Batch of 2 targets.
Target 1
Amino acid sequence: MKKIIKKTSLILSVFILFIGSWVTYVTLFNIPSHILPSPLQFFSNLFTNLKQGNLQEHIATTLIEIAIGSVIGIFLGLLAGYLLAKNYFLERIFTPYVILIQTIPKISIAPLFLLWFGLGVESKIALVVLVVFFPIMVNFVVGIRSVDKNMQDLLQILHANRFQKFVFVELYYSMPALLSGIKVASTYAITGAVIGEMIGAKSGLGFLIILGSETYDISLILTSVLLLSLIGLILYKIIDLVEKRFLHWSNHSEMVF
């Protein structure tokens, strides 16, 4: 309990220090509100936007893109990771192409996705799938190949079929690396969705950032950035709690990418 109180106190102290520095900077240098509003003005505008209801629609759009794209990306990453982990021939053939696609800047691919899928959520979901796929695939390959050799020999002796090997052993051994990959993928998913929205969209927090820059509305930009940061933090914490709950037997998580 004392540890939790101490940790909470430190977090609150840093937040208070940040707000104090913000107020001091704006007041001392007489910064105009259209360049950087005071904390009081910023939070006032934030609550006003939340009460109007329009902001919730943009939040919902971004969350839908992240959720659907992440689920599809994780599924495809698991499927591809399993196939590559089990077949070195397929790995040698397809891995260079997967890496090539991954190294392409996503902001350069976004316009293509907009042309192919339109300005709706489909193009953003496709971009999220693309950025989520790689860390899941890589970590799942490493996780499956981390199965102890003695365990593999035991499975052979017990005549375990492929499904039994996967469910009771391979998935078990790969969970630390896989959850670490999901942590990374969750941050990538937000980035992918926002990039797509900033290139071209009808709604979403990335769309609001572009709208704020075009209308010189700094409060709208800061609000969108704050909400995206909170979404990222919440997703990370949820995955972290799941990891601690189900991987208490593991001393460390193995993050590859």
Target 2
Amino acid sequence: MISFLIFVFVMSFTPGPNTIMAMVSGQNHGIKKSVPLNLGMLGGLVVIGALASIFASWIQSNETFVLVMKVVGSLYLAYLTYHVLISVPGSEDEEAGGFMTGFLIQMTNVKVYLYFITGLGAFTLAGIWGHI
């Protein structure tokens, strides 16, 4: 149980792009205007978790899928890095973003996919039985 709690702590509290976006939205627009964005991110998290749970054994056994996810994740992080590099302070949009913005951003958050793939493979019976 301790290893599971450490995994959850590390994966939950290391900042990803969505964590930073939620923080900046709250700082720039206030908590009330940022609620729809955060609810959208929560909705995306639930959908990804449900899909990962349904397809957990297939995902774990399909090495090609895991490799593709690693490549896509690396490209996504490079894309985000490029946009941070070229961004100009003070040029952000005036709106906080709505539910669909948060949902779609979460659906492209590779860290969440890896979180569920790793967690389900390591800490569920499907993952345990697959390694026995």
